[in-house]
Amino acid sequence: MRSNLHLSALVRQLAGFLPAGAPAPAEVQRQDVAERLGQSLNVADAIALSSALSSVAAVGTKAARLPARAPTAAMAEALQAELERVRAVLTQSIRTRDARHQPDPDELDTEFAFCLQRYQEQQRRLEMSVDALRGHVRQTLAQGTPRLAQLAALDATLAQMLGGREQRLLSNLPHFLRARFTELRRQPLTAEQNWLATFNTELEQTLLAELDLRLQPVVGMIESLSHES
Questions:
Q1: 20 or 46: whose pLDDT is higher?
Q2: What is this structure's pTM?
Q3: Which of 229, 49, 225 is nearest to 142 (CA)?
Q4: Where are the alpha helices (DSSP H) in the chain?
Q5: Can you spell out the DSSP letters for 179-202?
Q6: CA distances for 89 relative to 2, 17, 39, 68, 180, angstroms
Q7: Are 170 and 163 in contact (CB under 8 A)?
Q8: d(CA 24, CA 121)
């Protein structure tokens, strides 16, 4: 797992905002998933997770006694199509700028407030859309084999346990953007360069990386369904 673990697109994007000479967040590459998860859980969380895993095992046992609907390639293809549809809609939303907005270089604090509002609105859209898709995929897996039913239950458990932490971390992203906004303001640029345009492009790239991060559990579950087909 150590050799296959790579920094997410979001971490790479944020690392690009670091000042020149600052160390890149490479330490995460030397930790496996269990180590990283362990660092984010306290004793109470570990006890709750142990109990939850027992419940997940019971889900598989119950599903084995029921006439489960075997997953089919058609089901996997339908979910994959829905994933791509949601990704495309959100990507288009992220890349769409308000053509009526005209930045005022003399009111940069107001301009950042506008950018921040745009980012937070997109974050809310990502959260609602991806959560709905994730729930739909879980429901589909729960109707499949015992192993898929267990995976759906495990995903629901982890989402409940870690979702709050994830949201708190993602809510800190505007702080990185504010630092980047300030840094770009100070850089000497040529007449042909528009640092506000550069910042808006990087804002969109950060949102796209966040979208990729939020979709990872969905992608993993759909791949598991394909392997069971």
A1: 46
A2: 0.78
A3: 225
A4: 9-15, 33-40, 43-64, 73-95, 108-142, 146-170, 173-186, 195-228
A5: HHHHHHHHS---TT--HHHHHHHH
A6: 34, 27, 35, 33, 27
A7: no
A8: 29
